[in-house]
Write a structure and sequence with these properties.
Elements (H helix, E strand, L loop, with lengths): L3 E2 L5 H9 L4 E3 L6 E5 L3 H11 L8 E3 L6 H4 E2 L3 H10 L4 E7 L5 H4 L4 E5 L4 H10 L3 E2 L14 H8 L5 E3 L11 E4 L6 E4 L5 H8 L4 E2 L20 E5 L1 H9 L8 E5 L11 E5 L4 H17 L4 E5 L8 H10 L8
Parallel strand pairs: 1-9, 2-9, 4-7, 6-10, 11-12, 13-16, 14-15, 14-16
Antiparallel strand pairs: 2-3, 3-8, 4-8, 5-6, 6-7, 10-11
Bound molecules: threonylcarbamoyladenylate and magnesium ion (MG).
The site of magnesium ion (MG) has 2 residues, from loops.
Length: 329
Protein backbone atom coordinates (compact mmCIF):
# COMPACT_ATOMS: atom_id res chain seq x y z
CA UNK A 1 0.00 0.00 0.00
CA UNK A 2 1.15 3.51 -0.72
CA UNK A 3 0.44 6.27 1.72
CA UNK A 4 1.70 9.67 0.87
CA UNK A 5 2.56 11.65 3.95
CA UNK A 6 3.87 15.14 4.34
CA UNK A 7 4.48 15.65 8.01
CA UNK A 8 7.31 14.93 10.40
CA UNK A 9 4.66 13.56 12.76
CA UNK A 10 4.51 10.54 10.50
CA UNK A 11 8.16 9.65 11.03
CA UNK A 12 7.19 7.08 13.68
CA UNK A 13 5.06 5.23 11.15
CA UNK A 14 7.95 5.18 8.67
CA UNK A 15 10.28 3.83 11.36
CA UNK A 16 7.81 1.07 12.24
CA UNK A 17 7.75 0.05 8.58
CA UNK A 18 11.57 0.07 8.30
CA UNK A 19 11.83 -2.09 11.44
CA UNK A 20 9.39 -4.52 9.84
CA UNK A 21 11.66 -4.84 6.78
CA UNK A 22 9.52 -2.63 4.51
CA UNK A 23 10.64 -0.03 1.97
CA UNK A 24 10.24 3.69 2.68
CA UNK A 25 10.99 6.36 0.08
CA UNK A 26 12.19 9.61 1.62
CA UNK A 27 13.45 13.01 0.49
CA UNK A 28 17.07 14.09 0.82
CA UNK A 29 18.61 17.37 -0.31
CA UNK A 30 19.99 15.60 -3.44
CA UNK A 31 17.30 13.22 -4.73
CA UNK A 32 14.66 10.91 -3.19
CA UNK A 33 16.02 7.65 -1.79
CA UNK A 34 14.38 4.21 -1.64
CA UNK A 35 15.26 3.15 1.88
CA UNK A 36 15.50 -0.09 3.82
CA UNK A 37 17.09 -1.15 7.11
CA UNK A 38 20.74 -1.63 6.10
CA UNK A 39 21.06 -4.53 8.58
CA UNK A 40 18.10 -6.47 7.17
CA UNK A 41 19.22 -8.61 4.25
CA UNK A 42 15.72 -9.44 3.00
CA UNK A 43 14.72 -5.78 3.08
CA UNK A 44 17.84 -4.68 1.20
CA UNK A 45 17.26 -7.38 -1.42
CA UNK A 46 13.79 -5.95 -1.85
CA UNK A 47 15.34 -2.61 -2.90
CA UNK A 48 17.21 -4.31 -5.74
CA UNK A 49 14.05 -6.12 -6.84
CA UNK A 50 11.92 -2.97 -6.78
CA UNK A 51 14.49 -0.99 -8.79
CA UNK A 52 15.43 -3.86 -11.11
CA UNK A 53 18.94 -2.99 -10.02
CA UNK A 54 21.81 -5.46 -10.58
CA UNK A 55 23.28 -6.82 -7.36
CA UNK A 56 26.80 -5.74 -8.37
CA UNK A 57 25.82 -2.09 -7.85
CA UNK A 58 26.47 -1.29 -4.16
CA UNK A 59 24.26 0.99 -2.04
CA UNK A 60 24.94 4.08 0.06
CA UNK A 61 24.17 3.71 3.77
CA UNK A 62 22.65 6.85 5.28
CA UNK A 63 23.27 7.70 8.93
CA UNK A 64 22.02 10.47 11.25
CA UNK A 65 25.38 11.87 12.38
CA UNK A 66 29.12 11.50 11.92
CA UNK A 67 29.44 9.94 15.39
CA UNK A 68 27.82 6.81 13.90
CA UNK A 69 30.65 6.36 11.36
CA UNK A 70 32.58 3.83 13.47
CA UNK A 71 29.50 1.60 13.62
CA UNK A 72 29.87 1.06 9.87
CA UNK A 73 33.46 1.92 8.91
CA UNK A 74 36.92 1.23 10.32
CA UNK A 75 40.36 2.83 9.89
CA UNK A 76 38.69 6.23 9.54
CA UNK A 77 41.46 8.71 8.73
CA UNK A 78 41.67 12.23 10.14
CA UNK A 79 41.05 13.47 6.58
CA UNK A 80 37.79 11.53 6.44
CA UNK A 81 36.78 12.99 9.81
CA UNK A 82 37.59 16.45 8.50
CA UNK A 83 35.34 15.97 5.48
CA UNK A 84 32.53 14.67 7.70
CA UNK A 85 32.86 17.70 9.99
CA UNK A 86 32.90 20.12 7.06
CA UNK A 87 30.32 18.70 4.67
CA UNK A 88 27.86 16.68 6.81
CA UNK A 89 24.99 16.86 6.83
CA UNK A 90 25.30 17.45 3.09
CA UNK A 91 25.69 16.08 -0.45
CA UNK A 92 28.95 14.18 0.07
CA UNK A 93 29.30 10.38 0.26
CA UNK A 94 32.52 8.83 1.59
CA UNK A 95 33.78 5.36 0.71
CA UNK A 96 35.60 3.80 3.67
CA UNK A 97 36.72 0.34 4.83
CA UNK A 98 33.68 -1.48 6.16
CA UNK A 99 33.07 -3.06 9.54
CA UNK A 100 32.89 -6.88 9.36
CA UNK A 101 29.15 -7.01 10.15
CA UNK A 102 28.10 -4.97 7.08
CA UNK A 103 25.94 -7.08 4.76
CA UNK A 104 27.47 -8.22 1.46
CA UNK A 105 24.30 -7.29 -0.38
CA UNK A 106 24.86 -3.64 0.64
CA UNK A 107 28.49 -3.43 -0.53
CA UNK A 108 28.26 -5.83 -3.51
CA UNK A 109 30.74 -8.04 -1.66
CA UNK A 110 33.42 -5.34 -1.48
CA UNK A 111 35.51 -4.56 1.61
CA UNK A 112 34.36 -0.94 1.45
CA UNK A 113 31.15 0.88 2.31
CA UNK A 114 29.68 4.18 1.07
CA UNK A 115 28.27 6.44 3.84
CA UNK A 116 26.48 9.76 3.97
CA UNK A 117 24.56 12.07 6.35
CA UNK A 118 21.88 13.75 4.21
CA UNK A 119 20.87 17.36 4.82
CA UNK A 120 17.10 17.25 4.86
CA UNK A 121 14.89 17.66 7.96
CA UNK A 122 12.69 14.66 7.08
CA UNK A 123 15.65 12.38 6.27
CA UNK A 124 17.43 13.44 9.46
CA UNK A 125 14.32 12.96 11.62
CA UNK A 126 13.79 9.52 10.08
CA UNK A 127 17.42 8.51 10.68
CA UNK A 128 17.46 9.85 14.23
CA UNK A 129 14.31 8.03 15.32
CA UNK A 130 15.27 4.85 13.44
CA UNK A 131 18.72 4.92 15.02
CA UNK A 132 20.38 2.57 12.52
CA UNK A 133 21.64 2.89 8.96
CA UNK A 134 19.28 3.19 6.01
CA UNK A 135 20.51 1.76 2.70
CA UNK A 136 19.04 3.89 -0.08
CA UNK A 137 19.69 4.28 -3.78
CA UNK A 138 17.75 6.85 -5.82
CA UNK A 139 14.07 5.94 -5.82
CA UNK A 140 13.50 5.00 -9.44
CA UNK A 141 14.02 2.04 -11.77
CA UNK A 142 17.74 1.43 -12.41
CA UNK A 143 19.18 3.76 -15.12
CA UNK A 144 16.05 5.96 -15.15
CA UNK A 145 16.24 9.60 -14.02
CA UNK A 146 16.60 10.17 -10.28
CA UNK A 147 13.39 11.52 -8.71
CA UNK A 148 13.44 14.99 -7.18
CA UNK A 149 9.80 15.01 -6.07
CA UNK A 150 7.43 12.64 -4.26
CA UNK A 151 5.24 12.56 -7.38
CA UNK A 152 8.14 11.23 -9.45
CA UNK A 153 8.70 8.44 -6.90
CA UNK A 154 5.01 7.64 -6.86
CA UNK A 155 4.90 7.36 -10.62
CA UNK A 156 7.94 5.07 -10.81
CA UNK A 157 7.51 2.84 -7.76
CA UNK A 158 3.92 3.20 -6.53
CA UNK A 159 3.27 -0.54 -6.23
CA UNK A 160 6.71 -1.37 -4.93
CA UNK A 161 7.16 1.00 -2.02
CA UNK A 162 5.33 0.80 1.31
CA UNK A 163 5.45 4.52 2.08
CA UNK A 164 6.59 7.75 0.45
CA UNK A 165 7.49 10.66 2.70
CA UNK A 166 6.81 13.87 0.80
CA UNK A 167 9.36 16.62 1.37
CA UNK A 168 8.64 18.66 -1.74
CA UNK A 169 11.28 19.35 -4.37
CA UNK A 170 14.89 18.40 -3.57
CA UNK A 171 17.08 21.45 -3.05
CA UNK A 172 20.29 20.24 -4.78
CA UNK A 173 18.67 18.06 -7.45
CA UNK A 174 21.75 15.95 -8.38
CA UNK A 175 23.11 12.88 -6.60
CA UNK A 176 25.85 13.37 -3.98
CA UNK A 177 29.56 13.63 -4.73
CA UNK A 178 31.25 10.29 -3.94
CA UNK A 179 34.82 10.37 -2.65
CA UNK A 180 36.89 7.27 -1.98
CA UNK A 181 38.83 7.80 1.27
CA UNK A 182 40.38 4.32 1.53
CA UNK A 183 43.68 5.11 -0.18
CA UNK A 184 46.54 7.53 0.29
CA UNK A 185 44.97 10.09 -2.07
CA UNK A 186 41.23 10.75 -1.98
CA UNK A 187 39.55 9.93 -5.31
CA UNK A 188 36.28 11.38 -6.58
CA UNK A 189 34.25 8.46 -7.96
CA UNK A 190 31.15 10.47 -8.84
CA UNK A 191 30.99 14.21 -9.36
CA UNK A 192 28.41 16.20 -7.43
CA UNK A 193 27.76 19.71 -6.24
CA UNK A 194 30.53 19.41 -3.63
CA UNK A 195 33.48 19.89 -5.98
CA UNK A 196 36.99 18.41 -6.03
CA UNK A 197 38.35 21.91 -5.38
CA UNK A 198 36.28 22.34 -2.23
CA UNK A 199 37.41 18.94 -0.90
CA UNK A 200 41.01 19.66 -1.81
CA UNK A 201 40.86 23.03 -0.03
CA UNK A 202 39.54 21.47 3.18
CA UNK A 203 42.16 18.69 3.18
CA UNK A 204 44.96 20.97 1.96
CA UNK A 205 46.09 18.27 -0.45
CA UNK A 206 45.55 17.39 -4.09
CA UNK A 207 42.83 14.86 -4.79
CA UNK A 208 42.22 12.66 -7.82
CA UNK A 209 39.14 12.43 -10.00
CA UNK A 210 38.25 9.08 -11.49
CA UNK A 211 37.55 9.52 -15.24
CA UNK A 212 34.05 8.09 -14.90
CA UNK A 213 31.80 6.66 -12.22
CA UNK A 214 33.42 3.46 -11.06
CA UNK A 215 31.59 0.59 -9.47
CA UNK A 216 34.84 -1.32 -8.92
CA UNK A 217 33.13 -4.63 -9.42
CA UNK A 218 32.43 -6.67 -12.55
CA UNK A 219 29.61 -5.32 -14.70
CA UNK A 220 29.96 -1.63 -15.37
CA UNK A 221 26.84 0.20 -16.39
CA UNK A 222 27.43 3.05 -18.78
CA UNK A 223 24.05 4.61 -19.36
CA UNK A 224 22.71 6.29 -16.24
CA UNK A 225 20.07 8.79 -15.33
CA UNK A 226 18.78 8.61 -18.88
CA UNK A 227 15.44 9.88 -20.16
CA UNK A 228 13.74 7.42 -22.53
CA UNK A 229 13.64 10.03 -25.31
CA UNK A 230 16.74 10.25 -27.48
CA UNK A 231 18.79 12.98 -25.82
CA UNK A 232 21.68 14.82 -27.47
CA UNK A 233 24.18 17.25 -26.00
CA UNK A 234 25.34 19.91 -28.48
CA UNK A 235 27.19 23.18 -28.55
CA UNK A 236 25.44 26.19 -30.07
CA UNK A 237 26.78 25.80 -33.62
CA UNK A 238 25.90 22.10 -33.61
CA UNK A 239 22.37 23.02 -32.57
CA UNK A 240 22.03 25.52 -35.40
CA UNK A 241 23.32 23.00 -37.95
CA UNK A 242 21.05 20.31 -36.57
CA UNK A 243 18.03 22.57 -36.95
CA UNK A 244 18.97 23.32 -40.58
CA UNK A 245 19.10 19.66 -41.58
CA UNK A 246 16.05 18.42 -39.66
CA UNK A 247 13.66 16.14 -41.48
CA UNK A 248 9.90 16.05 -40.83
CA UNK A 249 10.02 12.62 -39.24
CA UNK A 250 12.56 13.93 -36.73
CA UNK A 251 10.01 16.32 -35.23
CA UNK A 252 8.89 17.43 -32.74
CA UNK A 253 12.03 18.28 -30.81
CA UNK A 254 12.59 20.08 -27.54
CA UNK A 255 15.62 22.28 -26.95
CA UNK A 256 16.99 22.91 -23.48
CA UNK A 257 18.76 26.24 -23.59
CA UNK A 258 20.46 28.16 -20.78
CA UNK A 259 22.02 31.06 -22.73
CA UNK A 260 20.60 33.90 -24.81
CA UNK A 261 21.10 31.79 -27.95
CA UNK A 262 18.81 33.04 -30.73
CA UNK A 263 17.59 30.25 -32.94
CA UNK A 264 15.91 30.13 -36.33
CA UNK A 265 12.18 29.51 -35.92
CA UNK A 266 11.48 25.93 -36.93
CA UNK A 267 8.07 24.24 -36.88
CA UNK A 268 7.49 21.81 -34.01
CA UNK A 269 10.66 22.92 -32.28
CA UNK A 270 10.09 23.95 -28.71
CA UNK A 271 12.52 25.85 -26.59
CA UNK A 272 12.74 25.44 -22.81
CA UNK A 273 14.80 28.00 -20.93
CA UNK A 274 16.99 26.73 -18.13
CA UNK A 275 18.69 28.85 -15.45
CA UNK A 276 22.18 29.96 -16.45
CA UNK A 277 23.56 29.43 -12.98
CA UNK A 278 24.89 25.99 -12.03
CA UNK A 279 23.10 25.59 -8.69
CA UNK A 280 19.74 26.64 -10.07
CA UNK A 281 20.28 24.51 -13.19
CA UNK A 282 21.05 21.40 -11.10
CA UNK A 283 17.98 21.99 -8.96
CA UNK A 284 15.76 22.02 -12.09
CA UNK A 285 17.45 19.47 -14.35
CA UNK A 286 15.84 16.12 -13.45
CA UNK A 287 12.41 17.65 -12.91
CA UNK A 288 12.53 19.28 -16.36
CA UNK A 289 13.93 16.18 -18.10
CA UNK A 290 11.23 14.05 -16.53
CA UNK A 291 8.43 16.32 -17.69
CA UNK A 292 9.89 16.76 -21.21
CA UNK A 293 10.26 13.01 -21.51
CA UNK A 294 6.53 12.70 -20.88
CA UNK A 295 5.85 14.94 -23.91
CA UNK A 296 7.37 12.19 -26.07
CA UNK A 297 9.29 14.37 -28.54
CA UNK A 298 11.60 12.70 -31.09
CA UNK A 299 14.65 14.35 -29.53
CA UNK A 300 15.62 16.34 -26.50
CA UNK A 301 18.54 18.56 -27.51
CA UNK A 302 20.51 20.03 -24.62
CA UNK A 303 22.80 23.01 -25.04
CA UNK A 304 26.19 22.07 -23.61
CA UNK A 305 27.09 23.81 -20.35
CA UNK A 306 30.39 25.54 -19.50
CA UNK A 307 33.43 23.40 -18.84
CA UNK A 308 34.08 24.99 -15.45
CA UNK A 309 34.29 23.46 -12.00
CA UNK A 310 30.84 24.51 -10.77
CA UNK A 311 29.19 22.93 -13.84
CA UNK A 312 31.17 19.67 -13.77
CA UNK A 313 28.60 17.48 -12.04
CA UNK A 314 25.90 18.79 -14.38
CA UNK A 315 28.04 18.11 -17.47
CA UNK A 316 28.69 14.63 -16.16
CA UNK A 317 24.95 13.90 -15.86
CA UNK A 318 24.17 15.49 -19.25
CA UNK A 319 26.83 13.33 -20.88
CA UNK A 320 25.38 10.25 -19.22
CA UNK A 321 21.83 11.21 -20.20
CA UNK A 322 22.97 11.54 -23.80
CA UNK A 323 24.98 8.32 -23.68
CA UNK A 324 28.29 10.16 -23.97
CA UNK A 325 30.36 8.81 -21.11
CA UNK A 326 33.85 9.89 -22.14
CA UNK A 327 34.63 13.40 -21.03
CA UNK A 328 37.33 14.54 -23.42
CA UNK A 329 38.44 17.34 -21.09
O1 LIG B 1 22.62 11.67 -3.47
C1 LIG B 1 22.73 10.44 -3.35
O2 LIG B 1 23.83 9.89 -3.17
C2 LIG B 1 21.45 9.61 -3.44
C3 LIG B 1 20.62 9.89 -2.19
C4 LIG B 1 19.40 9.01 -2.11
O3 LIG B 1 21.41 9.78 -1.04
N1 LIG B 1 21.76 8.20 -3.55
C5 LIG B 1 22.29 7.66 -4.67
O4 LIG B 1 22.41 6.28 -4.63
O5 LIG B 1 22.62 8.32 -5.63
P1 LIG B 1 22.74 5.41 -5.94
O6 LIG B 1 22.47 4.04 -5.55
O7 LIG B 1 22.00 5.88 -7.09
O8 LIG B 1 24.27 5.59 -6.12
C6 LIG B 1 25.13 4.92 -5.25
C7 LIG B 1 26.50 4.99 -5.83
C8 LIG B 1 26.73 4.03 -6.96
O9 LIG B 1 27.34 4.69 -8.03
C9 LIG B 1 27.67 3.02 -6.35
O10 LIG B 1 28.53 2.48 -7.30
C10 LIG B 1 28.41 3.84 -5.32
O11 LIG B 1 27.42 4.68 -4.79
N2 LIG B 1 28.93 3.02 -4.23
C11 LIG B 1 28.24 2.45 -3.24
N3 LIG B 1 29.06 1.72 -2.45
C12 LIG B 1 30.28 1.84 -2.95
C13 LIG B 1 31.57 1.34 -2.59
N4 LIG B 1 31.73 0.55 -1.55
N5 LIG B 1 32.63 1.68 -3.36
C14 LIG B 1 32.48 2.49 -4.44
N6 LIG B 1 31.29 2.99 -4.83
C15 LIG B 1 30.23 2.68 -4.10
MG1 LIG C 1 22.80 4.04 -9.61
Amino acid sequence: MVIKLDSKLNIMHAVTLLRAGKLVAFPTETVYGLGADANNEMAVRQIFRAKERPFDHPLIVHIAKKEQLPEWARDISSSAMRLAETFWPGPLTMVLKKQPHVLKVVTAGQETIALRVPNHPIALALLQVFGGGIAAPYANIFTHISPTSAEAVMEALAEKVDLILDGGLCEVGLESTIVDMTGHTPVILRKGMVTADEISAVLEMPIAVSPQETVRVPGMHHVHYAPSTRTLLMNTSEIINFLKTLKDDELPIILLIHTELSLPAVNKTFCVNMPNQAKAYAHELYRVLRSLDQERPKYIIIEDVPNTIEWQAIRDRLQKASGRTNDSH
